[in-house]
## 1
Amino acid sequence: LSKRLDGIFNNLGGQGKLTEEDVNTALREVRLALIEADVNLKVARQFVDRVKEKAIGSDVMGSLTPAQQVLSIVQEELIEVLGGTGENNRLDLGGSPPNIIMLVGLQGSGKTTSAAKLANYLRKQGQRPLLVAADMYRPAAVNQIKSLGKQLNIPVYSEPMGADPVDICVNALDYAREQAISVMILDTAGRLNIDERMMNEVTNIRARLKPREVLLVADAMTGQEAVRVADDFNKAVSLTGMVLTKMDGDARGGAALSIRSVTGVPVKFMGMGEKTDALEPFYPDRLASRILGLGDVLSLIERAQESIDQEEALKAQAKLQQGKFDLEDFLNAMHQLKRMGPLRQVMEMMPGFNKIAQMPEMEEALEGDHLKYIEAMILSMTKEERRNPDIIDGSRRKRISRGSGTTVQELNQLLEQFKEMRTMIRQMSSGKGPWAQMARQY
Ligand code: GDP
Ligand code: MG
């Protein structure tokens, strides 16, 4: 989205009121972005229509371009549809214990994994969880949850193959009461496609156990299919929420918007990996940014805070604001980025920076020994050269490359990279780049 909108930003210069044409132009791109993010076609169209109504005739705020204004309305609306900042995207464990959480969803969507993740998450919050193996269609399923339970040291209630899933859940409830369990998580069976027998089974379990939460586990990669699946499950068992899994992959999470719009079911958690701690509570603002391709700035900041030296970061920021950025800062930035993890992934979360991340040299620069070479080159420079790389002429280049055991070409490449990064950073910090505005909102 950012790339396409960059073009439009350039074409929309004026200020004042948003005209229908401004809005239409921007919204066409937004609709495409939604569809690219796997939002259901009909949902995308309805969403864009709603934004259009709000946007036309609204005043363009002082410092925004019309396209930015449209985008900010889009983002606000998206957050609203995804659940706003309301409490309904939190897990409800307000009943008398044991509270029951039932997981439903298609085979392979991540129910068993999510059951273990949830148990792990809730135990950290002081709960005493019990996992219940109610998927009796594959022996492997029972073993899978048993081994997850063992790994986490969380009890698993199971019965021999052939037992009736409804009975298992009822017996598990007795067991939970005896053992002073505070929350019970039911891992139910899935089917490649929804079939009647499975639906009857989950309906019966729901009726007998009266779970506090019935969560649909949905694979973020499902895309256009997601709405139908969610609708069917919602009709059968009346869902209270959703766990959107596999959000660590490429999926932008449009399925969440589709499901939410059509069924009203709020997303409560996101699965971010195969490990048992890869579960995050749901934040609508973050998903909204991700769906729009704006970059998940908040996640980035959190991650950066974990790995970045605060003081260094503040220093760098102050320098940036003064428009100064030298090779020493560059080297620092490279070190910090390396610590933050896979460069591309981190940078793609940052508005404006995804362009830098897409420069193949940048990725290369942080792989293997490249950083060492960069370091050697920069250390072979005089202080003055580091502060003001523009003075590095031909003879200085020869001296530096000889001193660092690199070639002049490698040095040229480094200086080139540095210049590109400096330009980009200047644009961002001057607040003129198209994404500077968006970035400031966070
Ligand atoms: P079930 O059939 O619904 O119980 O699905 P499983 O829990 O067995 O998961 C199916 C596959 O998806 C397994 O290989 C899991 O490791 C994987 N999986 C589940 N959740 C996630 C997630 O959030 N991210 C990733 N990358 N993989 C996941
Ligand atoms: Mg399973």
Note: The chain is about 60% helix and 10% strand.
## 2
Amino acid sequence: MPRPNPFDFAGRSALVTGAASGIGAGVARWLAAHGISRLVLIDRDEAALQNLQLASSDTSNIGTIERHAFDVADPVRWAECEAGLGPLDHVVVNAGIGGSGTMADVSFQEWRRVMDVNLDGAFLTLGTGLRALRKDGGAMRGGSVVVTSSVTGVKPVPGIGPYGVAKAAVAHMARIAAAENAAHGIRVNAIAPGGVDTAIWNAGEDFQKAVAQHGRDAALKGMASTTPRQQFATADELAGEIGFLLSDAAANITGTVLVTDGGYSL
Ligand code: NAD
């Protein structure tokens, strides 16, 4: 039964990984502001996860917030989490880390570090999430999933080989899951952002040097100079786009990789 307001998430449950910072925190805030009844927030940064503020009580009817601090690449922790998870309506497969190195020179250790979180972690999240979306006392429940890929998984960008490969793989994983689950009433899409102003950039050596020389704002502006929009997106802009894909307003959209990059890939 379609809702009069397709952005009404009242009565629904959502799981978000990487929820303590950046895009994931933005999605948690967006869902809270759109009336979600139960949020399951997962991140390995326990302090940031506990400190995350969602919305003031007057703008949100949010019922339950569950915060679980663990590494999304840990299958044992996912098995424990799944045992008590119950049914879900929405999943955002979002936790990720940056990583650099050319295909000729990147070490196997760095390759595995990036794949561990960005691919294995996404696989474990997606599988757990899909089973919870199907769970409703044996009846078909339906729901929607968004996987955070990257424009670097669509357009080859030199120097971040393992990251780009992992992001291409998770976008394809979303498309396979979309094909497998459409008959269950489950939609699965990927979002492929260009630069977004979040903490993920802080670990990059070039970015650290630019921040030391020019300050963070100028460093971000410099990095955005090759993007037609001339600026990075904000985490809240990304949250709105992910929220749209999760919502009933996107009822006919599944298996899409939505590029949101200010024109970077043009
Ligand atoms: P962020 O660093 O602000 O947030 C990432 C969150 O994921 C952090 O809270 C971190 O603690 C958590 N996390 C990392 N590894 C984890 C693990 N193994 N287990 C549990 N939690 C873990 O960065 P962000 O930009 O918000 O990143 C969110 C997603 O967006 C990532 O998948 C990233 O690759 C993707 N992305 C970001 C950009 C960008 O420019 N910021 C562009 C394209 C794609």
Note: The mean pLDDT is 94.
